[in-house]
């Protein structure tokens, strides 16, 4: 199984577009591929793949529940003092819990000498599974998460999406944009990453941040330049200077933007894009083979 994370340093570069088009192109080549939408705060991969959802499962995280009859209060304070996320505080001699701040590590339960804390549950969102509605030979399993409104912790839901995904020959992960904790959770365990960027100063700035993250995580990666032809050549020169593989380019055009705005796939609607994704996939395979032999 080859797990490929499609990521970007900022939103709006075309990361989801690349994920969806590459998944459909691979399926058309009889490659066993699954698509995962780990952008659980703003999932939109389904707008392009249009899966039929067959199962929706709530995802919970453990949160502490305090038995005030057993709690030792001020004379103990171990749970309050050990919680690095400040989800427990001492108020008027009693422990008060802020479930939204709890990361579900369970340290407070383990540390309580009076066994006054047990683990409850709090729903953070749902995991949806389904498949595209194409012909049987081209059906693509799709798994995605959607966070509950007001929820702040995406990583547990992202990990649930990855646990739920089928063991396909190729797994494409549509990561959240940026370089924060949800991105780290999405990238974890990936065999390689495809960074999608655009040739603008903003795009280059955030690409450099994303490159720093991937180098820190020691994940091999290459870059796809979307909307090539707009902006300038600084991104090309940066990749050459840093020795970063350019996996391919996708042209900037009004037709491509119009196609995107209607939720249509470039590989289905525009000439030249199928060849572009074929080239990108060949370069991904070359990169993967190089890393295996390293």
Automatic annotation (TrEMBL):
<keyword id="KW-0408">Iron</keyword>
<feature type="domain" description="4Fe-4S ferredoxin-type">
    <location>
        <begin position="93"/>
        <end position="122"/>
    </location>
</feature>
<keyword id="KW-0479">Metal-binding</keyword>
<dbReference type="GO" id="GO:0046872">
    <property type="term" value="F:metal ion binding"/>
</dbReference>
<dbReference type="InterPro" id="IPR002586">
    <property type="entry name" value="CobQ/CobB/MinD/ParA_Nub-bd_dom"/>
</dbReference>
<dbReference type="Pfam" id="PF01656">
    <property type="entry name" value="CbiA"/>
</dbReference>
<feature type="domain" description="4Fe-4S ferredoxin-type">
    <location>
        <begin position="62"/>
        <end position="90"/>
    </location>
</feature>
<dbReference type="GO" id="GO:0051536">
    <property type="term" value="F:iron-sulfur cluster binding"/>
</dbReference>
<keyword id="KW-0411">Iron-sulfur</keyword>
<dbReference type="Pfam" id="PF00037">
    <property type="entry name" value="Fer4"/>
</dbReference>
<dbReference type="InterPro" id="IPR017900">
    <property type="entry name" value="4Fe4S_Fe_S_CS"/>
</dbReference>
<protein>
    <submittedName>
        <fullName>MinD superfamily P-loop ATPase</fullName>
    </submittedName>
</protein>
<dbReference type="InterPro" id="IPR027417">
    <property type="entry name" value="P-loop_NTPase"/>
</dbReference>
<dbReference type="InterPro" id="IPR017896">
    <property type="entry name" value="4Fe4S_Fe-S-bd"/>
</dbReference>
């Amino acid at each position: 199984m080859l797990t490929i994370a499609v990521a970007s340093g900022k939103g709006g570069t075309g990361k989801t577009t690349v994920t969806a088009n590459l998944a459909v192109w691979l399926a058309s080549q009889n490659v066993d591929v699954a698509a995962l939408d780990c952008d659980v705060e703003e999932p939109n991969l389904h707008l392009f793949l249009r899966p039929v959802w067959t199962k929706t499962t709530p995802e919970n995280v453990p949160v502490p529940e305090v038995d005030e009859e057993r709690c030792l209060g001020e004379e103990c304070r171990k749970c309050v003092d050990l919680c690095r996320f400040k989800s427990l505080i001492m108020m008027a001699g009693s422990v008060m819990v802020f479930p939204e701040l709890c990361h579900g590590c369970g340290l407070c339960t383990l540390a309580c000498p009076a066994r006054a804390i047990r683990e409850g549950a709090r729903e953070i969102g749902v995991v949806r599974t389904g498949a595209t509605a194409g012909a049987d030979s081209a059906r693509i399993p799709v798994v995605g998460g959607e966070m509950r409104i007001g929820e702040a912790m995406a990583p547990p839901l992202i990990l649930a999406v990855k646990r739920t995904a089928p063991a396909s020959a190729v797994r494409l992960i549509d990561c959240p944009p940026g370089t924060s904790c949800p991105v780290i959770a999405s990238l974890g365990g990936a065999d390689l990453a495809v960074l999608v960027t655009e040739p603008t100063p903003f795009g280059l700035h955030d690409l450099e941040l994303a490159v720093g993250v991937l180098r820190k995580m020691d994940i091999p990666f290459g870059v796809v330049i979307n909307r090539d032809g707009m902006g300038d050549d600084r991104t090309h020169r940066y990749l050459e200077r840093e020795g970063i593989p350019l996996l391919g380019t996708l042209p900037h055009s009004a037709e491509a933007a119009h196609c995107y705005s209607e939720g249509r796939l470039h590989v289905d609607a525009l000439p030249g894009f199928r060849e572009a994704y074929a080239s990108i996939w060949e370069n991904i395979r070359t990169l993967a083979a190089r890393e295996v032999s390293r």
